[in-house]
Amino acid sequence: MAEHLDTSKGWCCDGRTWTEHAEAGGKCCQPQGKQIADLPAEGQKKARERMGSAAKS
Ligand SMILES: [Zn+2]
Fold first, then answer.
1. What is the reported pLDDT for 56?
2. Could you tell me the pTM of the whole model?
3. Which of 1, 6, 15, 54 lies at a 20 to 30 A Cα distance from 35?
4. Is a pLDDT exceeding 60 seen at residue 24?
C-alpha cells in the first residue's frame, strides 16, 4: 500500500505533513504552507525520508 502524503498545506515541525497533524490532533502546531527547508533539522530528516519512501512505492 503506497503511502500518500498530502503536502498541499505544507509540513509540521515533527516531520508529519500539516494535514496529518491536523487530522490527528484537530489542528497542526504550525502555520500552513511550511516547506521542508523551514523545518528544524529532525523534522527535515523525517520529512525527507517519508518523501523518499513515498516516491519509491
Ligand atoms: Zn503540527
1. 60
2. 0.84
3. 1
4. yes
